[in-house]
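Q: Sequence in, structure out?
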Amino acid sequence: MIQEKNGLNAINVFPVPDGDTGSNLASMMQSIIERSKLGETSEETLQSIADAAIVGARGNSGIIFAQYIYGFSLDVQNEVSKESFSEMLKRASTYAYQSISKPIEGTMITVMRTFAHAVETVKASGMIF
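A: Exactly. Output:
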């Protein structure tokens, strides 16, 4: 996201053509790189990443994605397993939706929800998961 921020800014036309989504997500990612720490457990590590994301969040896109990461980090128990991963994605997507007063489909929250559904579908089919 950091490297591609200008490309993301260029395609940022919906729902508001403000051209700053790439910059906002890059700020959040830079904060994660600089502030997060590897913990002794998955829970500590994910909490550190979520905290760093919130600190670096800028604009709606940064805040929404930081809330997605925070939602992903909730209720982690020591390890992230194949079984828990899809549930964590689903919870993260729901958390991102709930952080917005009027969610609009066709934005990053749709991608988040669709990704969680795709992982659940693959897991249920037994194909690769």
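Helices lie at 5-11, 21-35, 42-56, 59-73, 82-98, 108-125.
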